[in-house]
User: Fold these one by one.
Assistant:
Number 1:
Amino acid sequence: MNLNCVNHIMPVKKVNLCKVVERINNFLLPTSSRSECVPFYVENDQVGIVTPEVALLLQEHSDLFTVSSTSIHLSNKYSTFEERTEVMRVFLESLRNTGKLHRSLKGWRNETYNIRHSMSEPVLFKMERSAAGPFGVTTYGCHINGYTYKNGEMMMWIAKRSPTKQTYPNLLDQMVAGGLSSGLGFRECAEKECQEEASVPEKYLKILKSVGTMSCIHEDERGVHPEVEFLFDLKLPEDFVPVNADGEVQEFKLYPVSELQDTIVLDSFKPNSAAIVLDFLIRHNIINPDNEPSYCYLVEMLHYPIQTLFRKLPKVI
């Protein structure tokens, strides 16, 4: 896949929005570790993508994992949801206690994600959230775009993350966002995060509008991250001011949407949140095919096909 923006025949743009979608899909770039990674399977279902560094670590635990140059399998002796969940819990806690996978597990959350082949299939086990990157499992979350109008101009509430956040401290973010923990529904997650992160009154939650997804695949020092974010728009009254209740936000600031194209390309914006703001600007016709030469490319790269990323092995009869 060619990730270069085709703008050599286009007029020079003030802002290169391609940076936003390429940052969240850097696993697709030729400079990534993609060609060296190996799939991670539970039974016949691929559930993750593992880097060579993590594969070497798992090779040391042959009682739990079968590792080859082409695949990694969790041992078939763990055949139930409960057995897999427990063996992964014990394994990850041992790694944490011995300082292994420190770049990922230092952000230990005591919060689990459901792990499965795709969203439409059964959950195979649940696992500590901070271990998602090393195992390259698909993660799901909810992002809420809080917006309003002042003097007829559309404005969006942007949060600045706390300096104590385990990931992306001090960066700009959606008004509200959160990972989908085990046991939560999507709207339930969105409403919960709205109340905890921005003190949104319950009467406004009734107009929270589901508007689709953003999906991408990127890598960083923690591992590989296929992710799907479920998006919600929340139109708020002009006099509403968000107040953080869980300590995860330093401050909120109201931005005119006309300024956001310049803001989301900056390194001060959390990468996936910048992409979700871009999606908002496209859906609300602020960015459209007539004013953005890379419009088609941007839309495509905001929706990488994560649900068909993993493959199944033929069942042995």
Number 2:
Amino acid sequence: MSVMEWPHHLLSLEDWIDLPETPEYQVEAVEGVLVVAPRPMSFHQRAVTRLGYLLNEQLADEYCALSEVEMVVDVSPLTVRVPDVLVASAALVESNPARLSAAEVPLVIEVLSEGTKRTDQVTKFSEYAEAGVEHYWIVELDSPVSMITYRLVDENYENFGEFSGVAELEFAGAPLVIDLTALTTRRAQRL
């Protein structure tokens, strides 16, 4: 195991950009401080991949779902998150930016895992609301697989629905049907 030299000061966006890539870890910055965690396990990754695919199959043409893309929540102090899935405009995605601003992201989805539950349900919940991310959905993979959807109302998230089994909802005028159970099974959604 090699030891990397990490900065010993609060990071700026320029510092963040200069960091080496670390495929074996998930790295984020929170108020200028690096937060390093192990990569999620296989079931989590399967669920994230399927969720992104299912969204892209159903979203209106002007939107695109992406997995594990850097999202700048705040520049000073620097907070960069890497949501499991986010939705941005297709035109923005086609410009191939290195990272997105939270102001450009109308939907973020986090899939809970062993080491992220509190962060996803508390810290990111408040960060995303303060950054103006309109929709925040949280998926719980423990049986029965479930999802809570939140929408920003007057600068605070309100619960817009809790689902298990098949979630039927709407995003930006497009109906979405997500078989939540299929996120964890061997075969993908077949509705």
